[in-house]
Amino acid sequence: MAGYMRNKIRVLVVDDSMLARKVIIDGLSARRNIEVVGYAINAIDAKNKVKQLKPDVMTLDVQMPGMTGLDFLKSFLPEYPLPVVLVSALNLGVFDALHAGAVDFVRKPDSDVSTETFVAMLAEKVVEASKAKVQAPAAAPARAASALGSSVSGRIIIGLGASTGGTEATLEVMKRLPEDIPGMVIVQHMPTGFTKMYAERLNKLCRMEVREAKDGDEIKRGLALVAPADLQCRILRSPMGGYRVSCQPGEKVSGHRPSVDALFHSMANNVRCQMYGIIMTGMGRDGAAGLLAMRKKGAYTIGQDEESCVVYGMPRAAYDIGAVMVQASCREIPAALLRQLRARPITR
Q1: How many angstroms separate the first and last alpha carbons of the chain?
Q2: Rounded to two decimals, what is the model's pTM?
Q3: 77/8 Cα distance (integer angstroms)
Q4: Active-site residue 286, yes or no?
Q5: Which of 15, 217, 286, 305 is catalytic?
Q6: How confident is the model at residue 240 (pLDDT cuts 50, 70, 90)?
Q7: What's the pLDDT band for 138 if we cut at 50, 70, 90?
Q8: Cα 189 to Cα 104: distance, rounded to the nearest angstrom
């Protein structure tokens, strides 16, 4: 029994709400592969408990009295690089906390998210976080990319997919791209309600326009569309020419909705112009098969390298099956993409 217990993921629960703590502790303790080793009611308590209990993963409420979860992360992670899963209401502060080094987040139960769904998602994120690398936020400012201008002509579509660790990794890529980048579609695994806020965050920090995709949106130069949570996002050819996105309910693909595989397969099947596929940090295999299908149709494909990934799962799966043409860090991916965009057209 002792050996079995050592194989469990040791979790410290940090939340000032007694009710929330009970839900989290009871829910995680019911999982065979997770052991809740303790709880803390505030940031100071949490720091002491980490020293005492040495957990593998910490769940952290973003909004707490006194020192907030964000301020705690800023002071805590440089000294104790522990994987942290945020527990958050629908709040922009979660993205600041992710920038401060948290691995991932789940949405608190409310009228749109049931307790059962919350617990299941939290348990999944805890398992993912236990395998993640904790990375400090980037200190160096991004270099401004020069405009592509007339050096890139014709219709081009770029697809990008990411999961765990992807909110910050995708930002690292996007803020290094020019405002006239060819049309992009982004799938980032994220809870319902957060994709719109994430798109707005990217729009403020990046040079191109970024917004949450709506069904029927046209894909065009200088615009990046973020797939809405809980809808499958695919690219279709428009009757009058060009391309648009379809954002519709549907079954999960590769375990996700939206799914990177759903996006990439739609590009392989429907896009008849130049296309580029980028697969980034995340657990599992979502996107690997779709990226391979894109490469077989002539796409140029890029995978995030292991060193810069929070979780080298999705990029590894894609690389292992031959879907990735070049690997690069999230800071180097923009340069690799721009070199190809400025080179001669891809032959098909």
Answers
A1: 58
A2: 0.91
A3: 23
A4: yes
A5: 286
A6: confident
A7: low
A8: 10
What's the CATH superfamily of 2-130? Answer: Response regulator (3.40.50.2300)
189 given a catalytic annotation:
yes
Task: Given the residues 88, 163, 254, 266, select the one marked as catalytic.
Answer: 163
CA 202 to chain centre: 13
Is 256 annotated in the active site?
A: no
The answer to whether 216 and 239 have CB atoms below 8 angstroms apart is no
- Residue 59 confidence (pLDDT) above 50: yes
CA distance 48 to 28: 22
**C-alpha–C-alpha distance, residues 46 and 132, integer Å:** 20
Pick the CATH number of 149-342 from 3.40.50.180, 1.10.357.10, 2.40.30.110, 3.40.640.10: 3.40.50.180
Residue 86 clears pLDDT 50, i.e. is over it? yes
Catalytic residue among 56, 61, 189, 246: 189
